[in-house]
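Thread: Newbie trying to understand structure tokens

Hi all, I'm a second-year student working on a class project, and my supervisor (Dr. K.) asked me to get a predicted structure for one chain before our next meeting. I've only ever worked with sequences, so writing a 3D structure as a token string is new to me. If someone could post the tokens and maybe explain what I'm looking at, I'd be very grateful. Here's the chain:
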Amino acid sequence: MSSKNYYILGLMSGSSLDGLDLAYCRMQWGQNGLENWELLAAQSLPYSSSWEDRLRALPQQSALIYAKTDQYFGFYMAELVQQFLAQNNIRRLDFIASHGHTVFHEPDKRFGAQIGRGSALAALTKRPVISDFRSQDLSLSGEGAPLAPIADAYLFPGYSYYLNLGGIANLSAKAGQNWRAFDFAPANQLLNFLAQEKGASYDESGQWASQGEVQEELLAALLSDPFYQQPYPKSLSNAWVQGPQLRILAEFEASTEDKLATVCELIGISLRQSILDLQKEEGFGQAGKLLVSGGGAFNHYLLGQLQAYVEDLGIDIFLPDNNIIEFKEALLMALLGLLRWEKQTNAWPQVTGAKKASINGGIHWPPPKS
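---
Reply by user tm_fold:
Sure, no problem. This is what the structure looks like when written as tokens:
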């Protein structure tokens, strides 16, 4: 079988609601699977304030509003895609792989939902679109998450641990050919919420957190949730972060700086405990290199706290190129789309807890050329 180069656009709308991440890449697929790849262009396009408000409010809306928003968000994503393609003078594009925006994630009920209808996106961009990357795994009693270990294995070999600091923090660990991965704490969703109290969208470099003092009572209240003691595999929903955890944070009386420092401490403690939990399983939790991605990787104060919590475990933190930090999840979508296109597994039961491996994603074809 001869190798084939695919030109793919990966789309990711994260839980932080900061915009749509787009990663245009070339991936070469051959007899031995993925042979090489390169990121050709990447950009994050912010959502309009009206769309940010609509996405935040959607979980509490009616079925009619949900259905309309699913369709219209597909149209809106198509506008952003066309803008990206024009700005980067992109002409060759084999297909789009879109995660959509997660509205519900309830794996205990074998259910989850992302909006941004693939058929609407395909109709307006005139390109094939692959979407819905979690539902089959959920149907097989999996968590539908995390999916990041697939990118870690294919795109970034050579590390023992992979930490993504997005709206939610998740950890992947490798031992031989075996993988474990799970969400372990809220991250930028809480940090950005607090930064908004200071009139900013995020705490740049962790400057405000570095001025605060950890509030032990607040930390204990956040950690009292049963999730933190739950064994992996496990995953978090936006509703849980924006509900119980955000409520505790909002109601506690302390300065914004103190709350930011406390959330960073929460992430550090939870990362350390996650690695200690991994050590209970043979082959996992050993000393090694940890690769960090996601917007939280730009928070220097947070990274310092994390290194302090794992240093005595023999773990060293590494940062990749800035484009990888920012666009790893959009790259992941491109890879998941390629695996779906090639009819290969793109959800691993050893990570998600599903009954078996699965091939996730529905393909939406554009209108035929007239």
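A couple of things are worth pointing out once you decode it. DSSP finds twelve helices and twelve strands in the chain. Residues 157-319 form a domain with the Nucleotidyltransferase; domain 5 fold (CATH 3.30.420.40). Feel free to ask follow-ups in this thread.
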